[in-house]
Amino acid sequence: MKHFSYYIILLLILFSGFTYAQSTISGKITDGSSSQGLVGANVWVKGSIIGTTTDNKGEFSLSTNLSFPLTLTVSAVGYERQEVDLSAASTSIAISLSPQTTLMQEVVISASRVEENIMRSPVSIEKMDIRSIQQTPSANFYDGLQHMKSLDMVTSGLTYKAINTRGFAGTGNSRFLQLVDGVDNQTPGLNFAVGNLFGLSDLDAESVELIPGAASALYGPVAFNGVLMMRSKDPFQFQGLSAMTKVGINHVSDPSTDASPVYDVALRYAKAINNRFAFKINASYLTGLDWNATNYTDVDSRTPIEQRGESNPAKNAMNIYGDEVARALPGIGRVSRTGYEEKYLADYRVKSLKLNGALHYRINSNLEAIYQYNFGQGTANYTGSSRFSINNFTLQQHRVELRGSQFFVRAYTTIENSHDSYNVRTLGQHINKTWVRDLDGNVVSSDKADDTWFGRYTAAYTGNISNVPAQNHSTARGFADEGRFQPGTAEFEREKDRLTGIYGGQIGAGIFSNSKLYHAEGQYDFSKQVKVLNVLVGGNYRLYDMFTDGTLLDDKNERITINEYGAFVQASKELLDNKLKLTASGRYDKNENFKGRFTPRASAVFSPTENHNFRASFQSGFRNPTPVDQYIKLFAGPITILGGVPNNSKGMNVYENTFTASSVGAFGGAFGADVGAGTPPPQAIEKNKGLLQKSNVAYIKPERIESYEIGYKGLLGRKLIVDLNYYYSSYTDFILNQVVIQPQSQILNADGSINSQAASELLNGKSQAYQLYTNAKDKVSVQGSTLGLTYYLPSNFVISGNATWTEFNLRDANPNNIPAFNTPAYKTNLSISNPSVLGNVGFNVAWHWQDAFNWVGSFNELQPGRIQAYHMLDAQVSYKVPAIKSIFKLGASNLTNQYIVQAYGSPAVGGLYYVSITFDELFR
What we know:
Layout: H1 2-15, E1 23-31, E2 42-45, E3 51-53, E4 59-64, E5 70-75, E6 82-86, E7 93-97, E8 107-108, E9 116-117, E10 126-128, H2 130-135, E11 151-157, E12 160-165, E13 177-180, E14 183-184, E15 205-212, H3 216-219, E16 226-232, E17 240-250, E18 260-273, E19 277-289, E20 320-321, E21 326-329, E22 333-336, E23 340-341, H4 342-345, E24 349-364, E25 367-383, E26 387-403, E27 407-417, E28 422-423, H5 424-431, H6 446-461, H7 473-480, H8 490-500, E29 516-525, H9 527-530, E30 534-546, E31 560-575, E32 580-591, E33 597-609, E34 612-623, H10 627-631, E35 633-636, E36 639-642, E37 659-660, H11 661-676, H12 681-688, E38 703-716, E39 720-732, E40 735-743, H13 756-763, E41 767-775, E42 779-792, E43 798-809, E44 826-838, E45 841-850, E46 853-856, E47 864-867, E48 870-881, E49 886-893, E50 912-922
Parallel strand pairs: 1-7, 13-16, 36-41
Antiparallel strand pairs: 1-4, 2-3, 2-5, 5-6, 8-9, 10-15, 11-12, 13-14, 15-16, 17-18, 17-50, 18-19, 19-24, 20-23, 21-22, 24-25, 25-26, 26-27, 26-28, 27-29, 29-30, 30-31, 31-32, 32-33, 33-34, 34-38, 35-36, 37-40, 38-39, 39-42, 40-41, 42-43, 43-44, 44-45, 45-48, 46-47, 48-49, 49-50
Helix pairs in contact: 6-7, 11-12
């Protein structure tokens, strides 16, 4: 914070002395059909950063030191953009805007990092503008993104939803870049954005742009599978006091809990002073009862499917934790411990607090300095390799920026604190170690708890306990569970609080991370200087500063830092009387742990007429392994999880001196069979050691993608917008895990043969298993197509629909080497809306459907779980009260209240019904 304050002060000192002769431009903006003044219309000088908005009478005034002639650009939500040429200063400009009937003039920035018409974008792009944000039928604008084509949304809980495009979806997506005002919204420790838990409030959201597919050529390694760019409202353009109160209810007809209220409130205030200095403050708070994860299906991988279920003594229920601990008991069979349901372990009372403030200072007509501070604190439930309670997690961001009409320079830092977060599954396992009694009735220490419990079970089942029927799994379990802490009791809650406060999975369930991310970047548009080409250059530097205090990474005594940088250049040229636009770009990125990567992109847009645009593009991309992929060093009992960069395993001899896990399994099986047949162990070792194979695991490196795309976007009959595309992508070097076994001795003799001593150590427990991060050599491909239609009917009715088809081709790849695709083959969206169907009454109804598919994730040990096909209906009715600048809204997400699972093991999501009132830009 202190360093960023210094930067702002320095900028003001350097530029505050510059003064210029000022000219005043003022006038009035009106609605072309009603001649009424337009409130909140944007007016700015083209080619500069100077602009303002109209007041409650539609009037505006701005000062500039730019020389005449110049051009004013005027825009308002729902109206056609207009440009007005001025030869001299004027105080009586009258401009009339015509209502917008199509999206032909919509402008996007993310596709090429410069402003361009959405119809001529070189790649597929989706946009939610301020009007769509205000009219979304979903509970908030972020939930409303699910109605965009190409986008997949996965719900882990009420306050956390993950998005993805074009396959390989997950509950946490490190292949997708999410930006808020140009700032990466990922948490440095998790390495992915936690939905909108720490993002924008609805009141401050100005627009959202989505690029599906590889975007590394312009945005670097995180944008492997796409970019979501969210922009907040500029305090110069959106001024006044805005407030929103929303009250909802969820868990209606939920068999697992009673209906519960959801509260969502937000406040925004922005003010510009003399068109020179502006500030804004934002505050929002949401709280409610999270969706319950209640899938108790037996998923025990070592029990045949037909034998699983309630009668299975080794039952491992999906959302019950502690029952993963199981053993094969002699003469009895496989038995699991009794677990605890998730609802007793997780924190289901979730919340999201977002605070934001920004200062904007216009140093001159073409230079603006910005300082912004974001604070977020939230509680959410997240499905990863386990279920995690992200509890009171905080994320702070400081941003400073200097920008003009042709450039920007930006620096920001992100600071996280995991606070009370914990692993829900680990918590259940540890509580199970706090109450177990020996046969004399004494509570044993945690390190003896599992052995003692299984001993009690064995004694009861085999008839060695009086008054307990033998050969009965139910009574044996009851005897072993004597003294078990029951959920809700003081003893249970005491142990829950104690264990969540202890960091490190071997002794507690708490999660610790106080990691940071530092980022600086800039870009400059040389188009005015080069003339013959539009040339854009940019670059960035990033530093990860990881600190988990030894609980996840080996950083107890020394911080782990990772440096990376990148630079790009983009050139474009319009030919054939501006009907053909060619663009080429290239980017070079270097991470200190990997070789530099060059990622090119090329595109062509052909527009034979204004209303018809054909595009084709080639894109390439890559993804650096996350800091956790590189540096995790987690000692988890019989296995150690080890990140894949060389210096993370320095001196451990793991990559050089280990056997493959599969060969160790084959050797152990053959040895056991021979010993059982009477062969002495030494001879059995010598006979079978040839089955052992030295591992050949490579150090980790980035993933890669190449993608080709063609598309069309056009306007037919002045009423129908068509957006069609097809893409083909090829992926390689997917990051995966491989298990190896390391004995204490050297595995090979001098002549290359297997060392008998090393083979013996595999059998007597003198070995260690390692799970290594590496890459698969396999190549796979994905192809798909989307179609979007928007039809403008008379009287402000709009019907829109889209369909997405995606196909995954494994080719000759080993399925075990490829991340789960986790994407339905087909999904569709359909909506109908009218912002003023009856005067001030408007509505929006949106329907979503997607096909069934198999979900594979680490939460279920990579076993497939079926996600059933489902449809969801969102709807809202609104009523505007212009006199008090307010909108009343009655709506519902998932109106029909179907309980839908979007990721196997995550909760079923039902309807959320709400009523809200929003006051917008009062006291301008």
